[in-house]
Amino acid sequence: MPSVKLSVAIITLNEETNIGRCIDSVAQVADEIVVVDSFSVDKTKEICLAKGVRFIENPFEGHIQQKNFALRQATHDHVLSLDADEALSGELADSIQAVKTDWNADAYQFNRLTSYCGQWIRHCGWYPNRRVRLWDRRKGIWGGVNPHDRVIMEKGSKVSLIAGDLLHYSFPSIKDHVQTANNFSEIAAREAVRRKKNVNLVIHVLLNPAYTFAYGYIFRLGFLDGYYGFVICAISAFANFLKYSKIRQKTVQKTVENE
């Protein structure tokens, strides 16, 4: 296949700390950079415009909805979709540049390496954490259940793995992680209630968090990441506890309201 043109799609909300790094990391591979912003009140817009990207403001209705909106704004069918707190490693940028000149799959996946409180995490189930982020948008879209989105390709699509890490600059502090766990569990709980998911007190509220901690810390070798490995696994378990507790509470409240 001949060389392809690549659009990079990024969604933002108050990402002045991250967006410049993200844009700079894709500069060598992007033929177009589209940033879809949810009306940030910090310097996100100023930074984006200074770097010459196409900047579009759109109300946020959910991670999946916003990312698919961003895809539709792209000029080219071959897209790279990133979050603002992500950046390409040099090796991954080189791999993507090579793929552009010899595109022979429907989608490409690569490893994601996360920085947590300044430490790169290589266990806990957080690495290699392979993600499809580079694909032909005619063959796939964002799907999943908010806030946990993923690219869903058409049946029979060819997905290839390329070298290099997608660098994820996640939580600069434990406080940020706890706040996100609370926010995401709220979003997940609302979606689960909408889908009429049932929650079992013993299985989901009591046992699932314990299993989540054991799986990440023991079976996925989280202990090898030291103190922060323990913190990550503990907060991940707590996040599941919050999610299922909120689902149970919201379901009971909805039942009472309908009586």
Question: Descriptors for this entry?
Answer:
259 residues, alpha/beta, Spore Coat Polysaccharide Biosynthesis Protein SpsA, Chain A, 2 domains, nine-stranded mixed sheet, two-stranded antiparallel ribbon, 7 helices, 43% helix, 26% strand
CATH architecture of the largest domain: Alpha-Beta Complex
Quote the CATH topology of the largest domain.
Spore Coat Polysaccharide Biosynthesis Protein SpsA, Chain A
Number of domains: 2
Structural class of the helices, strands and pairings?
alpha/beta
Spatial separation of the terminal alpha carbons: 61 Å
**Please, what is the average pLDDT?**
96
Number of helices: 7
The tally of beta strands, per DSSP, is: 11
Q: Report the helical percentage.
A: 40-55%
- Look at the structure and name the CATH superfamily of the largest domain: Spore Coat Polysaccharide Biosynthesis Protein SpsA, Chain A
> H/E series, N to C?
EHEHEHEEHEEEEEEHHH
Radius of gyration: 19 Å
Strand content: 25-35%
Oligomer: single chain
Major beta sheet summary:
9 strands, mixed
CATH top level of the largest domain is Alpha Beta
Low-confidence stretches: none
